Amino acid sequence: QVQLVESGGGLVQAGGSLRLSCYAYVNSFSVYTMAWYRQAPGKLRELVATATPGGGTNYVDSVKGRFTISRDYLQKTVNLQMDSLKPEDTAVYYCNAAHIRESGKTYWGQGTQVTVSA
To answer: Do residues 94 and 38 make contact, with C-beta atoms less than 8 angstroms apart?
Structure first.
């Protein structure tokens, strides 16, 4: 069983920055692709960024150049540095871990609220 615990959400003005962190209680952190999703009120959950065990990263177009995902294997954490925040970034952000070989092993954190004021 994998447990994901997020931290770092909060309220920030437009143009500001926040850093989200997700600690993974897992034995084999290196066999999981880590990702951040977000869900705004009334909208579907969307993939924001991914970080593969091989070091690859990917971002949704709306955050490219503003958000940076990184993972720390020693600390078993995945971080999301969010700069130049916009009001449309307001959402609950969820950490996700997906096993690279076993598709049924997908886990979610409890979510952390990010609110960007205009």
So the answer is: yes
Q: At residue 105, what is the residue type?
A: K
Residue pLDDT, tens place only, 29-61: 999 999 999 999 999 999 999 999 999 999 999
Q: 44: how many CB neighbours lie within 10 A of its CB?
A: 7
Whether the pLDDT of residue 96 is over 90: the answer is: yes
The overall average pLDDT reported for the chain is 96
Q: Residue 63 carries which DSSP code? A: G
- What is the spatial distance between Cα 26 and Cα 14, in angstroms, rounded to a whole number? 35
- The pair of structure tokens assigned to 39 is 């869900």
Tell me how far apart the alpha carbons of residues 62 and 46 are, in angstroms, rounded to a whole number.
Answer: 11
- Which of 11, 7, 17 lies closest to 111, judged by CA? 7
